[in-house]
């Protein structure tokens, strides 16, 4: 650990202790004075990774976010938030520490300005957010904050929202810079951007229809530049005591601006979930096409939420990937803090985009419970068995405790 990282780790631990000790008084004071809202968000997590061909990784990290958002004044709010990530162990490859003999846990040490934004809100759903901000669109498959990792992905951006009529909404985002999870010490920690994201949502009697376009141009990562246009439809209805929900989505992607490689690729996703009492059963399939040179990409996505928690397919293989999955979740009656304990199990089967080459299979399981309105516990596990030498067998385990004001 170098001379810079040591004080950053000490400061992050101190900030986490400060948040845990003083969050309740700050909250009470803020509510009494009606002056704004304090932001305190800490997560202590242990992550273990066992992967063929690498030394086992054992990562204990602490993430702390401290910030403040003012109350509205003439429609304006101001928000500032700092984020620190401290490593309490170092037996893992965090992508910048040079420990390449170990399996990867992408949680490098960091201390940075996570968000600094001004928000204006008006009538008819009009809202403008300018500055460094968190952006999550739809299910985060194309644009997200990568909230699972300790160092959050945020954007230097301008976001404009409007609801021109009762059942329709429009969102436009201009992205000037992407602050990625790898931190300031990584060459890929920031992407200089000249990107535009547009989305139109229409609430219909038969569900919500969303049309979107992503024109992504990254000056220092031109291979990630692309233009993507897609449609997403989702609807939930009631059939007796059952609550089915169907989601369908398709998109087309091609080269854009600085990307000198020509390509035309597609994306398709379908999912059916049926909720009955405290049980939910889900089946679905997702297909990202490949042309033998590159695969359909979602460089701004919250990738951990898709194609298995083992994170084998963070980058789509050149021959694409098809993920067929099925899962079941169960929520107990509220306990012990008027919140349910949630159990979740999902199985995945991976092939190339045509289904002819077997990539492997994966099993995921998790349990999450809240001790009170601010403290939650989570345990997760993922095991991947590869059938293709490009994708090594691996097992990952997580234990985490979170405190949020």
Automatic annotation (TrEMBL):
Top-level taxon in the UniProt lineage: Bacteria
- Residues annotated as signal peptide: 1-23
Which InterPro entries would you find in this protein's record?
Porin_dom_sf (IPR023614)
Which species is this UniProt entry from? Candidatus Viadribacter manganicus
Q: Keywords assigned by UniProt?
A: Signal
Listed name of the protein: Alginate export domain-containing protein
């Amino acid at each position: 650990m170098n001379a810079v990282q040591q004080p950053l780790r000490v400061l992050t631990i101190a900030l986490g202790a400060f948040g845990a000790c003083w969050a309740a008084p700050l909250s009470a004071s803020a509510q009494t004075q009606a002056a704004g809202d304090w932001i305190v968000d800490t997560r202590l997590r242990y992550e273990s990774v066992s992967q063929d061909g690498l030394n086992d990784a054992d990562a204990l990290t602490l993430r702390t976010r401290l910030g403040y958002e003012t109350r509205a004044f003439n429609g304006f709010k101001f928000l500032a938030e700092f984020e620190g990530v401290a490593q309490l162990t170092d037996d893992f490859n965090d992508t910048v520490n040079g420990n390449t003999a170990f399996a990867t846990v992408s949680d490098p040490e960091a201390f940075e300005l996570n968000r600094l934004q001004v928000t204006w809100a008006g009538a008819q759903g009009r809202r403008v957010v300018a500055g460094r901000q968190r952006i999550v669109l739809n299910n985060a498959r194309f644009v997200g904050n990568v909230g699972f990792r300790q160092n959050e992905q945020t954007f230097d951006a301008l976001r404009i929202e409007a609801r021109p009529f009762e059942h329709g909404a429009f969102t436009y985002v201009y992205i000037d810079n992407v602050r990625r999870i790898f931190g300031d010490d990584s060459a890929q920690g920031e992407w200089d951007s000249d990107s535009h994201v547009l989305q139109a949502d229409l609430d219909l009697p038969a569900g919500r229809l969303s049309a979107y376009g992503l024109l992504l141009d990254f000056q220092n990562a031109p291979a990630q530049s692309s233009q993507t246009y897609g449609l997403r439809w989702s609807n939930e209805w009631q059939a007796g005591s059952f609550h089915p929900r169907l989601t369908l989505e398709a998109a087309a992607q091609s080269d854009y601006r600085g990307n000198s490689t020509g390509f035309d690729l597609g994306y398709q996703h379908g999912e059916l979930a049926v909720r009955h009492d405290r049980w939910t059963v889900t089946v679905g399939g997702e297909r990202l096409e490949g042309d033998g040179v590159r695969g359909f990409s979602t460089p701004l996505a919250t990738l951990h939420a898709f194609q298995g928690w083992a994170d084998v397919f963070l980058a789509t293989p050149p021959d694409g990937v098809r993920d067929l999955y099925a899962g079941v979740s169960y929520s107990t009656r509220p306990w012990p803090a008027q919140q349910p304990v949630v159990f979740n199990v999902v199985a995945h089967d991976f092939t190339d985009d045509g289904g002819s080459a077997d990539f492997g299979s994966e099993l995921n399981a998790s349990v999450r419970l809240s001790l009170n309105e601010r403290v939650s516990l989570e345990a997760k596990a993922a095991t991947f068995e590869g059938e293709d030498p490009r994708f090594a067998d691996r097992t990952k385990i997580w234990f985490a405790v979170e405190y949020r004001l």
